[in-house]
Amino acid sequence: MLLIHCPFCGPRSEIEFSYGGPATAPRPQDPAQISDADWVDWLTVPENRIGPVPERWCHSKGCGAWLTLRRDTRTHEILEVQHGA
């Protein structure tokens, strides 16, 4: 189980959080200007990197804050937590 440090509520179990997906590149400004295949990839194909990755988590059963974590996928160690971002 992950222990996520919420900047407002302190350390909390991952069961209080909802995974929001990878913190990837921002949404394309005009999806009509990119190919259908690229748009589908952006929407549905997350990166599956080994090592530290940025992820979005919502403290849904707590204060409701959105956090960006940097988590090492090899060890599940949380290396950094930022509010919002």
Describe the protein in words.
This protein has 85 residues and is mainly β. The chain has a single domain (1-24, 50-85), classed as Folate-binding superfamily (Folate-binding fold). Helices cover 11% and strands 39% of the residues. It is built from one helix and six strands, in the order E-E-E-H-E-E-E. The protein has one helix at 36-44; strands spanning 3-6, 10-13, 18-22, 52-58, 66-72, 78-83. The strands form two sheets. A four-stranded antiparallel sheet has the order 3-4-5-6, with no helix packed on it. A two-stranded antiparallel ribbon has the order 1-2. Strand 1 and strand 2 (10-13) form a beta hairpin. The longest helix has 9 residues, at 36-44. The protein is globular. The two termini are 24 Å apart.
Quick structural overview:
With 85 residues, the chain is mainly beta.
List the helices and strands and how they pair.
Layout: E1 3-6, E2 10-13, E3 18-22, H1 36-44, E4 52-58, E5 66-72, E6 78-83
Antiparallel strand pairs: 1-2, 3-4, 4-5, 5-6
Order of helices and strands: EEEHEEE
Helix/strand class: mainly beta
> Any idea what the CATH architecture is?
2-Layer Sandwich
Q: Largest sheet, described in full?
A: 4 strands, antiparallel
Give the fraction of residues assigned to helices: 10-25%
Give the tally of structural domains: 1
